[in-house]
Structure to design on (449 residues):
């Protein structure tokens, strides 16, 4: 018997606590609840005046005693007011709960309470405006970490890709390459389960679809249906319930061209095409776009100029990051933006692009295109332990790099794949730095004080 009573008390306490969570600051419920209660009070006051008028002016008939009983006139006025007030509040709460439950039912996820869903949405909606410029698996990993902190994320990717499925669609159909855009949309999806896996699914070569990713085909089809590549990206984002935006750096059909010094030779070769640059295995001396000086996509510039945080990297240095910075308007927008600017260095080198590069080499390569000293913080991984695949090595931190740049170094590598960033660690480090709780920004401000 005692165990049953304890169980009942526990359940009642649980439901009371769960109800009170609706009044936690920041959810945006209290203000609208107060408005509903005030409106209900006005309606109730008007109805009470009408009932009182009927009660006072109606002749003494058989139903008058019934009306007197229903009005609880045998009780004192304070008690009557309390009973009617509590009853009204109960009916309002149940009614609002039922309406919200019905309206929000399509958006509820299994195993997650309605309060948690609303609270998480409000928290992310008020998050910092973050712009990330990069590409490949590095950018996707960072986006997966950032989306836990904010919904105001904009990923800017290059359209110079000409390899694999994207390159084939580009050559045969004339569409801008959707590969990096597809990966970013999948990373920002609210539900990285079946729908996202389907979006990332790649057909086998023997299926007659030449190894195309389903997401690439979907974006291509939506481009044809909507008549606009950018509208196709937006529609794909709605399908995946994307938390943020993915924007191309430019809508011009550009090609990446590199001047490469061949291995064990002084001979330099001009290579056209992003996918061919790493295959030559030489030292990249210079890269540029053809046609030169393409116009940036206007919403991309707007996102950069209004950002609280601008993150360059991670991603392939010459084929993912720099092609975005070769769009002059983007470089200028980064320069004039008031957002805090980070450069995130890759954890490991990339064959054909950055063999033997240190963190400082990455930074200097980028600053050969944009102004020196542009980055507020350079973020490097300092965990160089773990087994790496063949032909790659850890990107190490230069001993004197912190004399030239504000540097933040920490263990940011994935324990299972040490050549990649851990999305949670990297995103948390960036947000901590922005909030001036750790790293060189906080130390500089402390020294000034």
């Amino acid at each position: 018997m005692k165990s049953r009573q304890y169980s009942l008390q526990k359940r009642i306490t649980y439901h009371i606590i769960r109800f009170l969570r609706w009044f936690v600051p920041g959810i945006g419920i209290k203000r609208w609840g107060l408005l509903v209660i005030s409106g209900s009070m006005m309606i109730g006051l008007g109805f009470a005046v009408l009932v009182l008028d009927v009660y006072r002016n109606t002749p003494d008939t058989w139903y008058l005693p019934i009306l007197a009983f229903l009005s609880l006139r045998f009780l004192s006025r304070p008690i009557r007011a309390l009973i009617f007030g509590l009853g009204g509040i109960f009916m309002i709460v149940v009614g609002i709960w039922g309406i919200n439950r019905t309206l929000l039912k399509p958006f509820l996820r299994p195993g997650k309470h309605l309060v948690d869903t609303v609270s998480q949405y409000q928290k992310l909606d008020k998050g910092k405006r973050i712009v990330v410029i990069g590409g490949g698996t590095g950018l996707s990993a960072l986006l997966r970490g950032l989306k836990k902190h904010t919904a105001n994320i904009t990923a800017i990717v290059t359209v110079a890709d000409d390899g694999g499925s994207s390159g084939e669609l580009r050559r045969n159909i004339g569409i801008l390459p959707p590969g990096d855009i597809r990966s970013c949309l999948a990373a920002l999806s609210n539900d990285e389960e079946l729908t996202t896996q389907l979006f990332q699914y790649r057909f086998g070569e023997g299926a007659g679809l030449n190894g195309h990713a389903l997401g690439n085909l979907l974006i291509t089809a939506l481009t044809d249906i909507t008549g606009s590549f950018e509208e196709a990206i937006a529609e794909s984002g709605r399908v995946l319930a994307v938390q943020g935006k993915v924007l191309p750096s430019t809508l011009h059909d550009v090609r990446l061209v590199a001047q490469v010094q061949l291995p064990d030779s002084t001979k330099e070769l001009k290579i056209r095409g992003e996918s061919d640059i790493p295959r030559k295995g030489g030292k990249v001396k210079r890269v540029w776009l053809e046609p030169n000086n393409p116009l940036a996509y206007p919403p991309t510039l707007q996102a950069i100029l209004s950002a609280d945080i601008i993150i360059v990297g991670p991603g392939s240095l010459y084929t993912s990051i720099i092609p975005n910075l070769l769009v002059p308007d983007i470089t200028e927008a980064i320069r004039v933006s008031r957002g805090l600017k980070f450069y995130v260095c890759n954890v490991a080198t990339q064959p054909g692009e950055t063999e033997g590069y240190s963190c400082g080499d990455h930074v200097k390569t980028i600053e050969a295109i944009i102004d020196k000293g542009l980055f507020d913080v350079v973020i490097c991984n300092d965990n160089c332990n773990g087994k790496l695949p063949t032909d790659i090595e850890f990107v190490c931190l230069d001993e004197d790099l912190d004399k030239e740049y504000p540097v933040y170094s920490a263990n940011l590598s994935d324990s299972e794949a040490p050549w990649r960033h851990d999305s949670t660690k990297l995103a948390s480090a960036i947000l901590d730095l922005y909030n001036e709780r750790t790293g060189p920004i906080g130390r500089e401000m402390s020294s000034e004080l």
